[in-house]
Amino acid sequence: MVNRKELNPESSPRAAFGALVRSSREERGWTQDELADATEYSSTHISAIETSRKPPTLRFSRSIDRALGTGDQFERKYREVKQGVLLEGFPEYVGYEGRAVEIRLFEIGLIPGLLQTPKYARALAEGDVQRGSINAEQAAQRVAFLAERQSALTRTRPPMVLVVMDESCLRHRVGGSEVMEEQLQRLEEVAARPNWVLQVSPFEIGARRSFNLPVNLLTLADRSVVAYAESQAQGYVERETGAVVPMLTAYHQLQAEALSQAASVALINQLRKGIP
Known about the structure:
Layout: H1 13-27, H2 32-37, H3 43-50, H4 58-68, H5 73-83, H6 90-97, E1 102-107, H7 118-131, H8 136-152, E2 160-166, H9 167-171, H10 177-191, E3 196-201, E4 215-219, E5 225-230, E6 235-238, H11 241-257, H12 261-273
Parallel strand pairs: 1-2, 2-3
Antiparallel strand pairs: 1-4, 4-5, 5-6
Helix pairs in contact: 1-3, 1-5, 4-5, 7-8, 10-12
């Protein structure tokens, strides 16, 4: 008799996702091999998802939806799983981010997520584990989710991405010299891409800096603009024009005060070469 592991959907969001895959597959009368044949995944991978030994990904969720004809049920369930490691409001923002034609970012203290290397992202997540704010599994999920956000930018018609980083982003050491050297090199490489503009807001601009908190602004295909900002406890998506337009104006003013892209890359290169 085949050894069948009993599932406990109540134990975690990931376990609930796996149990749903199994129940939906069995309602269809399919084996794991038959579900594997209908997707690009192996039966071993499907088994690992069902028993929560592996976390689901957005790509896997969409593949299961297509195979089982479940609309976007598994994609929505996947986003519920991610809610456990993300601030409230952030999954909604990511949904807009994946459809944006222009992305404008301003960050203080840390390299923006869309620009982080895997090692830099892991170092940040491991810091949260050490502080006890998340566990190791949640840290791995957070890093994997960031990788999915980054890969979504490589679509056929990628968005224009404009980034202004406070100088503190470059000087705040995360993960040691090797991690920072690789991260700064990544910034130089990204700045050379035609759909990216990378600028540094130097300390010297002082009170002329438009924002004192990170800001994300997304322009959608219909030219509407949404904004996203975070507190320590939650994130918030703002869609009201009266609130968003002044933020867009302030962003343009910030770009005017920031270093040019050429001067920004020169500063990044200087800092990278100075890392001991």
